[in-house]
């Protein structure tokens, strides 16, 4: 009877650097995490490795995996709360109580998320790219997460708030506390009750996308005063309570020098009366045969301007305004859009 051949363990730490690097580069993110726990040397090796491009998302929504690794808009690996719990003994000497991870199916607690977030970002030498939060978190929790991000990074590419319950005080305190810049802010607030206008600081972002479910839950928590004072490049607002006088103020504000960085503005409204909309505004109406396109990469939309109304600011910048609707539109919902053309300085 032949003896069973027992393979010898591969002592990968004894391998030359190039061979060791090739092995590590073929590990997935969870395997990399586990490798880093073996020893200080292993953690140092991981930190010295340049991995293929991916981003990290921290998701604090109920019943969601707290950490996800994203490449080309696809999730390639996730760390669930259970995965983190089973590795609890490696974090701060296991001083995090397992009961602290979550409560009754809720998302990961903020303190655990901060500890794990710091460790994950450290070994992969990367910042949090995307943050998903529920808009009904307590004021204390919102301040805590904002203060943590203030200390660990200077910017956040994308921040999502979505849910059916909203605590406007908590949202205000988050943005008032946050010192880091936000490139894209998405507010999907679907509460069925009225909330107060949010802090003007929500407009201190490159792109704002604000959405509500339908016309019964209008977005009245973003006002014209918000828009006039904003530094946004892209503003995309759905189901808004704006009317002709509001948009007239916005257009005149732009003509007078407000919103100097704005490139694209979109809002869904009821049908607008052109006479009221353009009251006191000089414009040039373009024929519908003139078709101009704008690639709004921030929200992933190719927007077509067919004809429209051109206006010019005193510095020569030209913008086109358009009101359009779909053929089947029983609710009489209209898309009002304004594009500031980047290379046009005359009319």
TrEMBL record:
Its name, as the record gives it, is: F-box domain-containing protein
Q: Where would I find the F-box domain in this sequence?
A: 9-58
Q: Which Pfam families match?
A: F-box, FBA_2
Q: What is the superkingdom listed in this entry's lineage?
A: Eukaryota
Species of origin: Caenorhabditis remanei
Listed PANTHER family: F-BOX ASSOCIATED DOMAIN-CONTAINING PROTEIN-RELATED, F-BOX-CONTAINING HYPOTHETICAL PROTEIN C.ELEGANS
